[in-house]
Amino acid sequence: MSKRLSELVRRDLGIGLGLRTVHYAHILARRPKVDWFEILSENYMHTGGRPLHVLEEIAAHYPVVMHGVSMNIGSTDALDRAYLRELKALQVRCNARWISDHICWTGVEGKNLHDLLPLPYTRRALRHLVERVRQVQDLLEQPLVLENPSTYLQFAGEDFDEPRFLQELTAATGCGLLLDVNNVFVCASNHGWDAEAYLRAVPWDHVVYFHLAGHTVHPTHRLDTHDHPVCKEVWQLYALANELSGGRSTLLEWDAHIPDFATTHREAKKAEKYRGRRPRSGSPDRAVTVAS
Amino acid sequence: MSARVDLRTLQRWMSFVVQHPATADIAVANRRATALVPKRTFDARGVVLGNERMTPADQLQVYNGAYLARLVEVMQGDFGAVQHVTGPQLFERLVARYLTPHPSRHPNLNQLGRQFAAFLSRQRTLAHRSFLVELATLERAMSEAFDAPEFEPMDPGELARVPAERWHAARFVANPSVELLSFRYPIDEFFQAWKDGEPRAVPRRRASWLCVYRRDDRVWRQRLQKPAHAVLAALCAGRPLGEALELAAGAGEVGEWFQGFARDGLFTAVQFRGGRRARPRSRS
Q1: Are B133 and B187 in contact, with CB atoms under 8 Å apart?
Q2: Are A113 and A107 in contact (CB under 8 A)?
Q3: Is A35:A90 a contact under the CB 8 Å cutoff?
Q4: Distance between terminal CA atoms of chain B?
Q5: Rounded to an integer, what distance in angstroms lies between the CA atom of residue A254 and that of residue A244?
Q6: In a 3-state reduction of DSSP, which class is residue A79?
Q7: In terms of Cα–Cα distance, which of B203, B193, B181 is closest to B136?
Q8: d(Cα A98, Cα A145) in Å, to the nearest integer?
Q9: DSSP character for A277?
Q10: Cβ neighbours of residue B55 under 8 Å, at least 6 residues apart?
Q11: Which residues in A lie closer than 8 A to residue B18 (C-beta atoms)?
Q12: ipTM score here?
């Protein structure tokens, strides 16, 4: 593991919130006590007005992390180098501690579907992804931090399960991981995975931070909608993730039906209860039940 | 799948299925899809596994349904007044039709609606088409002003330093958010009424002129008279002040217009031939 990644992993920013426009006025006026904010990178790219000025004001008072949805790292299209250059410039502008995106593809043949589409966990896809992550890291001159996605299908003929894919990817590239605990639960529920076994197989020395969020339950599947409080099962998994990792920076995402700032912040602060738990051996005393 | 279909082919296939305006199960049987992944391979769960609760097509439908829903929501945000006129169902159908020739090709969704007004102008059976085209043009102009590149408004002192004998030759650099619009309908009046929650019926034709711009991080709309619009358009095109003002010769308010344009931050610099900025008067 690179020294740079090791620094990111050790840098515990505390409990942060996803920065959303509906909270701008409150944050700017009240300067609430929040450990850090995560921005959606693309909201501050290809724009020159208020978003950037708000970001500068917030970055002057809080640590900021960048989280993107359009790197298209898993696509078979060429990497968008202009996008990556702009991403890097934005990082300089807001002094973002790191840059994250998703293990996914978002489009092909020049189109952007603006969705986090799943990659098949095959050896060929892994080789492709490894090469792309290396290129991006060279360009950004830092470890890229990648998030496990929520998925609603699995491909036939895969060579790895998701945790093994993450192990191979991180070992080959030295990239960091953003472990979205809600995504682990949603995928486990949708695909019948063992969420606890998943967490036990995570390459923890690459995990830079956690995401928490709510999701929607449909009769046939769970959908990662970020429009509810974090559910009990995800808190349980988060507790286990803290035990296994010793704690990491943690971020609450809330993207639809966003409540007022105080409610959102209160939800995030629930994470305090679980943080800082020491790693321990043996089985956890709580079983995580996954059912759709 | 992955053993049978290479990653590029898989992505092209899934991209087609997800974007298909009907449903995933219709999309996978389409010739363009089956040329990439044969239907029998799909039916044999050779690409997407499915599970006991969802067929492979059901699973793809999660992505297909989310695609249109997400982009309709973005377009609703950008073209709320247009949607008010069309109603939500027609608006969604229009967006679905729009996305086929104009899919997003940009990392940022703020570019999605760039061609929407032009698209509406080609919908021959659309009721109130010419009005909707102009309304969409206004809403798009507001989005573009919001996202226009950063700029520094002109220092008022810069104007004060222009020697009187050089005023006629002064050229102004428009701030990059400025967009001048001319309409056949009273578009801004309609838009303001809609924003105020007092929507009106589609109005009769009556020409109107408007300037949309950003100042202090807010988007403003300034209604103009036709001569003022002509003067401002000439200035924004880089014509010298003297020449631009001649377009409104006889209009008593022309000086006030110009002062208003400058006060509202529509310019970032004053220049003279050769691109030099106004310089302070010589102190010698």
Answers
A1: no
A2: yes
A3: no
A4: 82
A5: 25
A6: coil
A7: B181
A8: 7
A9: P
A10: none
A11: 113, 115, 117
A12: 0.93
What residues contact residue B264 under an 8 Å CB cut-off, 6+ apart?
A: B213, B215, B220, B222
pLDDT at B193: 98
Return the sign of the alpha-carbon dihedral for residues B80, B82, B87, B93.
negative
Q: Is A167 on the interface with B (CB under 8 A)?
A: no
Interface test with A, best of B7, B16, B45, B177 (most A CBs within 10 A): B7
Residue pair A44/A257 in contact (Cβ under 8 Å)? The answer is no
Task: Estimate the crossing angle of helix B254-263 against helix B226-236, to 10 degrees.
Answer: 50
pLDDT digits (tens, 9 = 90+) for B121-140: 999 999 999 999 999 999 99
What distances in angstroms separate CA B94 from CA A16, A114, B121, B279, one per listed residue?
39, 19, 12, 53
Per-residue pLDDT tens, chain A, 292 aa: give them: 689 999 999 999 999 999 999 999 999 999 999 999 999 999 999 999 899 999 999 999 999 999 999 999 999 999 999 999 999 999 999 999 999 999 999 999 999 999 999 999 999 999 999 999 999 999 999 999 999 999 999 999 999 999 999 999 999 999 999 999 999 999 999 999 999 999 999 999 999 999 999 999 999 999 999 999 999 999 999 999 999 999 999 999 999 999 999 999 999 999 999 986 554 443 333 334 443 3
The neighbour count for residue B111, using CB atoms within 10 Å, is 16
A78 touches chain B (CB under 8 A): no
Q: Do the beta carbons of residue A105 and residue A119 sit within 8 Å?
A: yes
d(CA A277, CA A173): 29
What digits encode the pLDDT tens for the residues B63-73? 999 999 999 99
Distance CA B43, CA B55 (A): 10
pTM for this prediction? 0.91
CA distance A116 to A234: 21
To the nearest whole Å, the CA of A262 is away from the closest chain B CA by 25
Residue keyed to tokens 């959303």 = A20
Q: Do B15 and A113 touch (CB under 8 A)?
A: yes
In whole angstroms, what separates CA B11 from the centre of its chain? 30
Amino acid at B237: A
Cα gap B81→A16, rounded to integer Å: 36
Q: Is B173 helix (H, G, I), strand (E, B) or coil?
A: strand
> Do B183 and B210 touch, CB atoms closer than 8 A?
yes
